[in-house]
Design goal:
The chain is 37% helix and 15% strand. It has ten helices and twelve strands. Strand 6 and strand 7 form a beta hairpin. By secondary structure, the chain is an alpha/beta fold.
């Protein structure tokens, strides 16, 4: 089993539902040291997906490169398109769905972010879209910018200004650039966050429901999140649920797990999940216990996002050669 641990390293205030276009504090990133006991002792190499509001602060960015060296981590890009320049004001509710923005504007925003994360020698090759709000426009921008691995697909999720990924696969795949929820022939590898349908076909039925005018969209969102799926995410669910999800994923032939959480979940009071220091300690303990279980039960091997690319590229090449034979 391949294990990807990804962290959205970002500014504060997002859990309030307020998507401000203005400068925001990112003091929570200095709490990431708490993860030493997980990453160093268990030999886990995480991917730090960093937003512009973190990257444009000298001390915070220096912290990121320090963690990269200490953890043998990867620094990737995390685009919050509502507050990454150039800022364009529009009349729609925030956060603006990326498909309502022009491709030129999305590419300009991505360029601002990538340049802020450049160390003068290289640019990020891994990416996650804020709010998982990835559509065809943004995906084609990623192809042009040389991204190797994206992790913006959130299966069994659909919301305004967020994902519309009800029917997306749960294991890594090369997408169709015109619809990144489908398998295709893109040069970019997609590593979706690990969320599984509770039984086969439920994603298709939810998608059909979402397209009828007789069933409220919010009801579809609620069913997908709370009834029809299992999230293999220690930040969201208890360990027994996460372990059950792993067993189901393995039984269906799954070969990779993508775990994610937010940097602010390590800062008490800056998120709704971990409001106290004790809650943060419990989360870290659960994360450590879960990874230890994966390593013991499934010989889980740690990869950063970009390290995963050559593995799946080789599988694709081998598959093509076999088809030709």
């Amino acid at each position: 089993m391949k294990l990807l641990v990804t962290i959205d390293v970002e500014e504060e205030g997002l859990f309030s539902g307020n998507y401000s276009r203005e400068e925001s504090s990112a003091s929570n990133v200095f709490e990431l040291d708490l993860l030493d006991s997980v990453f160093l002792e268990l030999n886990v190499r995480p991917t730090l997906l960093v937003s512009y509001q973190v990257a444009n602060k000298d001390k915070a960015l220096k912290k990121m490169f320090g963690l990269k060296d200490r953890w043998k981590a990867e620094i990737g890009a995390h685009l919050h398109h509502w507050n990454t320049p150039p800022i364009v004001f529009d009349p729609v509710p925030q956060p603006t769905p990326s498909e309502l923005m022009s491709t030129d504007l999305l590419e300009s925003k991505a360029s601002s972010l990538f340049e802020s994360l450049s160390d003068g020698q290289s640019r990020p090759t891994s990416f996650r879209m804020g709010r998982f709000n990835l559509g065809p426009k943004m995906f084609q921008v990623l192809e042009r910018m040389g991204v190797k691995v994206d992790s913006s697909i959130s299966p069994l999720r659909k919301s305004y200004g967020g994902p519309d990924h009800l029917m997306a696969p749960s294991d890594p795949y090369f997408p169709n650039p015109l619809d990144p929820r489908e398998k295709g022939k893109s040069s970019v590898l997609e590593a979706p966050v690990s969320i599984l349908p509770i039984f086969r076909g439920v994603d298709r039925r939810l998608d059909l429901l979402s397209k009828t005018r007789y069933f409220p969209e919010r009801a579809t969102e609620w069913l997908a999140m709370n009834v029809a799926s299992i999230a293999i995410q220690p930040a969201w669910v208890n360990l027994n649920v996460a372990k059950a999800g792993v067993r189901l994923h393995k039984a269906r032939g799954g070969k990779c797990l993508t775990i994610f959480f937010h940097s602010s979940e390590l800062a008490p009071g800056m998120n709704p999940l971990n409001t106290t220091k004790e809650a943060v300690r419990t989360f870290i303990k659960n994360l450590r216990t879960f990874i230890q279980w994966l390593q013991a039960r499934y010989d889980a091997q740690s990869y950063t996002l970009s390290e995963l690319y050559p593995v799946y590229e080789q599988l694709r090449v081998t598959s093509k050669e076999n088809q030709q034979d």
